[in-house]
């Protein structure tokens, strides 16, 4: 996609020039695995790294976006995102330079992608802030202190000593115990906490900081902190909020600066197509069956098995809707054949089995002869498998592609049912999938009302796989659905894990 070699072209800003004006700053060191990303990257990376690092980070942000849309708590989001972070953007406590570099650069690359409109900037800040919050929660207390210390210019925080905490314990308890109790209950997912437990926690675990009270006017106004000699004493649970506000302020102002620098960068025709592609659709991350799927599970996929409940129970609503109507009518128009045919190819249906399947269905009741089928449809099926014409090995459509195509007309069944079905039909289909609880259905309808179709689909996946998800440890289960084949593979993997 990109030329790997750097080149110099008169009048064009190239990589070397960019490093001298767009990315002015000190040479980067990574003293902490958490970052405010306030120092731009300076080293050169290849275009391949540029692309893959951006996509890997985007996968994390998309998952966070999906969690927010489904009103997941920060703890639930953390559980869902954790396996993805380990896979795509790990940050181990023992210094691994390559990991920190990838984290740093991928953040800056996505700034270029998401600085372009107010809406994208807001989305980026929101999701990056949640990522920052999750990562801070994972730091050791020592690392948290070190992080604060290295940003003393922005964070004039002073940790109080244990002696000082005990000296003013009654005052600190009175002013902050309600906040601390609420946070502990959320963290431990418990309903109650005795006063003794709370006292013990504050005495032994809670780390207070003090800083000039004018830095936290809202906390002072809400009487959430202890004030003494012009200093506000702030418990750990509130410190993270202050950090996140600081993070958001820095990111917001730097995104605006990045936006102003874009015209110079856009003279580089190697980066522009990639940046445009990434920003076009926030959910446009390509599903890769090698990354998520399990090819060994394709062995039982054939022309007969794909109509059995054992296999169709793993279909997302779009595939089920297409196949059900195709079987009922012994026919499917072109757009539907493409969408379903490539989906079936993606789940492992071979070309021979695909020809059998389509021929059986089209000739079984409508009076179509096998000769007519072979004449009018065989070529197209072989074409999808790269065996005819330009011999392109076509990939199954992802949700973004499906949603970008024209909506189905009368007698057509392609598209995304969450977008294309009437409310009554959608509810009927949800019932068929086993989603019958009214509040669950309302949640899906709310997603659809906000045009968050993939979020609705992810919600339905979680509702219909509740039992399996509760019995398995996280292993990609929380992944946002952005591809019908991802839905299918995740569903089968969960079943397989439980059987193992
Ligand atoms: Fe299919 Fe994607 Fe729509 Fe789900 S969101 S029904 S996978 S197109």
From TrEMBL:
Coiled-coil ranges from the UniProt annotation: none
Free-text cofactor note: Binds 1 [4Fe-4S] cluster.
Domain of life: Eukaryota
InterPro entries per UniProt: DNA_primase_C (IPR058560), DNA_primase_lsu_euk (IPR016558), DNA_primase_lsu_euk/arc (IPR007238)
UniProt keyword list: 4Fe-4S, DNA replication, DNA-binding, Iron, Iron-sulfur, Metal-binding, Primosome
Organism: [Candida] anglica
Domain DNA primase large subunit C-terminal: residue ranges: 312-488
Pfam families: DNA_primase_lrg (PF04104), DNA_primase_lrg_N (PF26466)
Protein name: DNA primase large subunit
Cofactor(s) needed: [4Fe-4S] cluster
Family: Belongs to the eukaryotic-type primase large subunit family.
Keyword Iron: yes
Function: DNA primase is the polymerase that synthesizes small RNA primers for the Okazaki fragments made during discontinuous DNA replication.
Tagged with keyword Translocase: no
């Amino acid at each position: 996609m990109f030329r790997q070699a750097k080149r110099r072209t008169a009048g064009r800003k190239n990589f070397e020039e960019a490093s001298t004006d767009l990315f002015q700053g000190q040479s980067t060191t990574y003293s902490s695995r958490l970052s405010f990303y306030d120092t731009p990257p300076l080293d050169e990376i290849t275009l391949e790294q540029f692309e893959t690092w951006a996509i890997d980070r985007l996968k994390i942000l998309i998952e966070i976006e999906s969690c927010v849309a489904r009103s997941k708590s920060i703890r639930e989001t953390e559980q869902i995102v954790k396996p993805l972070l380990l896979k795509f953007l790990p940050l181990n406590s023992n210094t691994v330079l390559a990991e920190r570099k990838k984290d740093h650069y991928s953040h800056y690359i996505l700034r270029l992608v998401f600085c372009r409109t107010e809406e994208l900037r807001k989305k980026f800040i929101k999701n990056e802030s949640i990522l920052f919050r999750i990562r801070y929660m994972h730091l050791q207390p020592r690392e948290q202190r070190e992080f604060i210390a290295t940003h003393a210019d922005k964070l004039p925080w002073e940790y109080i000593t244990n002696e000082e905490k005990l000296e003013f314990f009654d005052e600190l308890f009175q002013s902050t115990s309600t906040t601390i109790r609420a946070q502990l209950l959320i963290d431990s997912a418990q309903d109650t906490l005795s006063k003794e437990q709370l006292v013990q926690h504050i005495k032994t675990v809670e780390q207070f900081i003090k800083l000039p009270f004018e830095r936290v006017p809202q906390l002072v106004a809400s009487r959430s902190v202890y004030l003494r000699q012009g200093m506000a004493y702030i418990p750990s649970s509130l410190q993270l909020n202050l950090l996140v506000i600081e993070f958001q302020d820095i990111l917001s102002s730097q995104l605006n600066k990045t936006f102003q620098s874009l015209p110079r960068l856009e003279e580089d025709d190697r980066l522009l197509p990639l940046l445009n592609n990434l920003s076009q659709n926030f959910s446009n991350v390509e599903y890769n069956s090698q990354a998520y799927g399990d090819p060994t599970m394709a062995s039982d996929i054939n022309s007969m098995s794909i109509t059995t409940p054992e296999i169709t129970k793993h279909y997302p609503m779009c595939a089920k809707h297409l196949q059900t109507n195709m079987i009922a009518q012994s026919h499917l128009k072109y757009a539907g054949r493409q969408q379903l045919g490539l989906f079936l190819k993606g789940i492992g249906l071979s070309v021979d089995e695909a020809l059998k399947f389509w021929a059986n269905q089209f000739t079984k009741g409508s009076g179509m002869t096998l000769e007519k089928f072979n004449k009018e449809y065989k070529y197209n099926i072989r074409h999808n498998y790269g065996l005819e014409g330009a011999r392109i090995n076509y990939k199954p459509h992802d949700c973004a592609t499906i949603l970008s195509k024209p909506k189905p007309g009368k007698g057509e069944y392609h598209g995304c049912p969450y977008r294309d079905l009437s409310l009554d039909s959608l509810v009927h289909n949800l019932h068929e999938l086993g989603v019958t609880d009214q509040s669950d259905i309302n949640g899906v309808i709310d997603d659809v009302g906000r045009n968050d179709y993939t979020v609705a689909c992810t919600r339905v996946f979680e509702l219909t796989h509740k039992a399996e998800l509760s019995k398995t440890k996280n292993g990609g289960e929380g992944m946002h659905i952005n591809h019908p084949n991802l839905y299918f593979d995740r569903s089968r993997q969960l079943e397989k894990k439980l059987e193992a």
